[in-house]
Design brief:
By secondary structure, the chain is α+β, with helices and mostly antiparallel strands. It has one domain: Arc Repressor Mutant, subunit A. The protein has helices at residues 10-18, 25-35, 44-56, 76-97, 99-104; strands spanning 23-24, 60-66, 69-74. A three-stranded antiparallel beta sheet has the order 1-3-2. A hairpin with a 2-residue loop joins strand 2 (60-66) and strand 3. The longest helix has 22 residues, at 76-97.
C-alpha cells in the first residue's frame, strides 16, 4: 500500500531514525544533526510540525514526559515504514552500484 507520506522526506527519515530511542523534540534535533554530520539542522517549527504529522499517522507515539517536554518513540508501524524505505533505498543504491553488471545481463 502506498501511503501519502511515502517516499519519506529526508526530514521524516531522520526523525523516525532518531526516535528509535525515546527522545523529546530538542534531543531529537541534536541527534539528527549528529546523525547527518551537520547537514540536516531542523528548525523547531519544522521538527514539531513533522512530529505532529508522524504522531497523527501512528508512526511515533508519546511515551512519557521530561518536565514539560513530551518524549516520543517510533511505533511498530513506524518501524515497518522505515523497513519499507530501507528496502526502497537499497534498491536505488544497487542501481548505482550494479550499472556495469546490468549491461552484461
Amino acid at each position: 500500500m502506498k501511503h501519502k507520506l511515502l517516499p519519506l522526506s529526508e526530514t521524516m527519515h531522520y526523525i523516525l531514525l532518531a526516535l528509535r530511542e525515546p527522545l523529546h523534540g530538542y534531543a531529537a534535533m541534536q541527534k539528527i544533526e549528529e546523525m547527518s554530520k551537520g547537514t540536516v539542522v531542523l528548525a523547531a517549527g519544522t521538527l514539531y510540525g513533522a512530529i505532529e504529522n508522524l504522531n497523527k499517522h501512528g508512526w511515533i507515539e508519546p511515551v512519557g514526559h521530561s518536565g514539560r517536554r513530551k518524549i516520543y518513540q517510533i511505533t511498530s508501524e513506524g518501524n515497518s515504514i522505515l523497513n519499507t524505505e530501507h528496502d526502497r533505498l537499497l534498491h536505488i543504491v544497487s542501481l548505482y552500484e550494479g550499472s556495469e553488471s546490468n549491461e552484461e545481463g
